[in-house]
Write a structure and sequence with these properties.
161 residues; alpha+beta; Thiol Ester Dehydrase, Chain A
Length: 161
């Protein structure tokens, strides 16, 4: 059975700017591979997190900025589609793309590319903003996200090199 590759996991919002993207390139490490020298499937959420962290730094939503704002953004949904294996010492690139949403949440798509540019894995996360102290969900978009959106609409973010 061949999986159908989706162009996008999230429906586009009319008039929204293009996604903000960031990339991380590295190799499969020894501790990430199973006895067959294939990257273990359970490592992919950590790859997503590496690229997500880079994306957050790029658009003003780093972990330090979350702490300063008194916010958390727990993942409420994680989805992964596997197409090709990554192997021990193989170089690959993880791309994280934040997709516009009008609510107090973050929609992020992930693509993991093999060195030859073919797609190995894709997936997405949905995160909701919560108050750091109470854990209560934010009903309105927090100021940190609104600052990011203003810069996004102004065209300050360009896709990866």
């Amino acid at each position: 059975m061949k999986l159908k590759r989706k162009k996008s996991y999230f429906d586009p919002v009319p008039g929204a700017p293009e996604p903000i993207s960031a990339e991380v390139t590295r190799r499969v490490r020894f501790n990430e591979a199973d006895p067959m020298a294939i990257m273990w499937h359970g490592r992919y959420p950590l790859l997503f997190e590496e690229a997500s962290e880079e994306l957050g730094r790029r658009c003003g939503m780093s972990y330090d900025e979350y702490l300063e704002a008194g916010l958390r953004a727990p993942i409420i949904s994680l989805h992964i589609d596997y197409f090709q294996s990554l192997f021990l010492a193989e170089e690959f690139t993880i791309r994280a793309s934040m997709v516009w949403h009008d609510g107090a949440r973050i929609n992020t798509e992930f693509h993991v590319y093999k060195q030859d540019g073919s797609l190995a894995t894709s997936g997405y996360t949905i995160q909701l903003f919560t108050d750091h102290l109470t854990g209560e969900p934010c009903m309105l978009s927090p100021e940190m996200l609104e600052r990011c959106r203003s810069r996004w609409k102004a065209g300050e973010f360009h896709c990866c090199p």
